[in-house]
Amino acid sequence: MRLKSILGLSLLALFLTSCGNEKSDKTSEQLAVKDSIQFNYNVEQFADIKILRYQIPGWEQLTLKEQKLAYYLTQAGLSGRDIIWDQNYRHNLTIRKALESVYNNFQGDKSTAEWGAFETYLKRIWFSNGIHHHYSNDKIKPEFSADYLKQLLADTNTVLEGDPFEVIFNDKDSKKVNQGKGVDNVLLSAVNMYGPDVTNNDVINFYKNKKSPDALKPLSFGLNSQLVKENGVLKERTYKSGGLYGSAIDEIIKWLELAKGVAENEAQANAFGLLIDYYKTGDLQTWDDYNVAWTSVTNGNIDYINSFIEVYNDPLGYTGSYETIVQINDFDMSQKMKVVSDNAQWFEDNSTLMDTHKKENVVGVTYKVVNVTGEAGDASPSTPIGVNLPNANWIRASVGSKSVSLGNIIEAYNNAASSGRLKEFVNDEEELQLEETYGQIGDKLHTALHEVIGHASGKLNPGVGETKETLKNYASTLEEGRADLVALYYLFDSKLQELGLVDDWQKVGKAAYDGYIRNGLITQLIRLNLGDDVEEAHMRNRQWVSAWVFEKGKADNVIEKVTRDGKTYFNINDYAKLHDLFGQLLRETQRIKSEGDYAAVEHLVETYGVKVDQVLHAEVLERNKQFTSAPYSGFVNPVLVPETNDAGEILAIKVTQPETFAGQMIDYGKNYHFLPEVN
Q: What is residue 90's three-state secondary structure?
């Protein structure tokens, strides 16, 4: 599970790659930006996107063996880059190849508005790993004509025709993931995790008949496969060597074998071996064995996430999107934050959960602040700020989990942000000062509590199936909201000061509450087009949490809606009562999850998390027009460049920075393109 940043208007923009190949034909785009005393976090901005850079603190302190391990893992991650493009939409690879051919070969006039629109469109689909917006899931609309594209194709001897051409301009496959109520979510979702004629009922009935050998350790059926119909019969196409995406997976395996050879310890090497076996066989029992082994590896300076993991892009929450993160330990911050995981049982015991829903023994929760060395797949260019894995409830309960906060990503967001939007949307000077003084520590603690305590907390009632089965299309937003509520409940608690995590728990808590409500009820609306419903799971959860406590606190004026000079603000009048409301909602969300109460989660999300106040939305969009900074941010990755001797042995690995976003994307398309256009 991952945490996307709260648009809390520090402005942390949004809540897994790197590297060049060992080839000698490096382009200038792969080489370093000239060193400067002041690191330049900003690369460029286009449409609603801002591209940033991040540094890798601590790289020089790693041994050469550790640097090799990080390098091999980033290579493995990038080798699967094509997979997420195909998972997102069946025509994505065809479209990308054609548009990149145009970009590389067009020799005509590049000063025209239409060429500028073409470049922007290509950058947008690079950022989204396909033709659907990375957050709204809506198809990205080009601002150039079909005739202009036909001319570009002709001028560059590039072929793009039939459905892959037409779909750029028509209304077909308009929503990557359709989470609408009362519709066939699978049939109406463009995402390529199911065949085009597969329905909700097909999926539910197919997996309902799958039985795990051990009912107490349910396998993650559907996690690594595409469900299709062949002659009217449902069939899984498994992601594995020799199966679907096999050519890219073979490349991933090659680099994982090299990583295994420089593992930091035997336990880590064993985990690599199981991951390799999983990629070779597609066996879900091996996947669980790998996750048990990976979770148990807590020693070493290098860690990683790699495979088909998060299920947000599956409208029913079965199939995992390909993603990787490679990370090195941030020793100083991890030591400071270790206190959160060390006290996990206290947090569980003192929560508002029903006693029957509390874990008697919270095990194996590890928390680290890490620095990312590379990301790929669904976590790049848009990246999480925190991750908690594995997702299987039984492994979390019996073995534990790993939680990480991506320290250098958060640092880049903070250093690249401006305070203009914050000043526009805060209610008063007191709220502004609280955010500027305590907002960053509040964000860090929210991430820690969300990932370490939130996702690790609570348990299912005996006999209740996996959450994706019971809560279906609402499972992701319910789980993210539940983890947020754990964090929110404890962010306004003196225990944080007792543990030495803050110097003024009330002010930190107030800043965190202000930011969450401000985002959930106002500022995240800048990410939506007027008239749109809220679709994305994290946006939904922030709205239903905020809207629920606002409504339930009306009698006591806990949160006041303020109108001043034609502008709307939300002011928290009673933080203690808001804390209690968060606790009440936490108790209810855990009950819903523990009991698998679909009717209750449907009511909660549809009542509070989907519809938008159109008058307020129009006002927010108008107020936001004054700001040039884009609402979404993502990253280019540092490039790891091996230096070798005549025998090809790596002597050192340098960290360089890409100069442009387009340059890195073109390099990636050239060096990490291992799948055919149609799979």
A: coil
Find out whether 585 and 621 touch, Cβ atoms under 8 Å.
no
Angle in degrees, 0-180, between the axes of helices 113-128 and 661-671, rounded to the nearest 10: 60
d(CA 396, CA 398): 6
Encoded amino acid at 601, one letter: V
Nearest C-alpha neighbor of 39 from the set 655, 639, 657: 657
Question: Which H or E run includes 327?
Answer: strand 322-329
Q: How far apart are CA 82 and CA 656, in angstroms?
A: 24
Band of residue 140 on the pLDDT scale cut at 50, 70, 90: very high
> Considering only CA atoms, which of 547, 541, 530 is closest in space to residue 593?
541
Structure tokens at 545: 């949490």
Residue carrying the six token digits 């990932």: 451
pLDDT per position as a tens digit, 34-70: 333 489 999 999 999 999 999 999 999 999 999 999 9
Say if residues 576 and 443 touch (Cβ distance below 8 Å).
no
Q: How far apart are CA 9 and CA 523, in angstroms?
A: 8
In sequence order, what DSSP letters do the residues of 188-252 get, joined into one string?
T---TTB-TT--HHHHHHHHHT---SSTTS---TTTTEEEEEETTEEEEEEBSTTSBTHHHHHHH
Spatial separation of the C-alpha atoms in residues 522 and 516, rounded to whole Å: 10
Is the preceding peptide bond at 638 cis, omega within 30 degrees of 0?
Answer: no
Rounded to whole angstroms, how far apart are CA atoms 592 and 580? 19
Query: pTM of the full predicted structure?
Result: 0.80
Residue 77 CB contacts under 8 Å (≥ 6 apart), including other chains: 16, 17, 18, 252, 304, 306, 324, 325, 326, 374, 375, 376, 377
Dump pLDDT digits (tens) for 160-206: 999 999 999 999 999 999 999 899 999 999 999 999 999 999 999 99
For 425-475, write each residue's pLDDT tens digit. 999 999 999 999 999 899 889 988 998 899 989 999 999 998 988 999 999
SS3 297: coil
Phi/psi of residue 405, nearest 5 degrees: -110, 125
Q: At what angle do helices 113-128 and 146-155 cross, to 10 degrees?
A: 90
User: To which residue do tokens 């990253």 refer?
Assistant: 635
Residue type for 409, please? Answer: I
Banded model confidence at residue 527, pLDDT cuts 50, 70, 90? confident
- φ, ψ (nearest 5 deg) of residue 564: -145, 125
Tokens of 456: 């690790």
Closest CA to 449 of 482, 408, 414, 498: 482
H helical segments located in 522-613: 537-552, 575-595, 598-608
Q: Compute how many other C-beta atoms are within 10 angstroms of the C-beta atom of residue 654.
A: 14
User: What letters, b where the CB count within 10 A reaches 16 and e where it falls short, cover 40-70?
Assistant: ebebeebebbbbbbbbbebbeebeeebbbbb
Residue 634 to residue 128: CA distance in whole angstroms: 10
How many Cα atoms within 13 Å fall on the side-chain side of residue 381? 30
**Cα 454 vs. chain centroid, distance in angstroms?**
17
As a whole number of angstroms, the distance between CA 86 and CA 148 comes to 26
Task: Note the pLDDT tens digit of each residue in 374-420.
Answer: 999 999 999 998 888 999 999 998 999 998 889 999 889 888 877 78
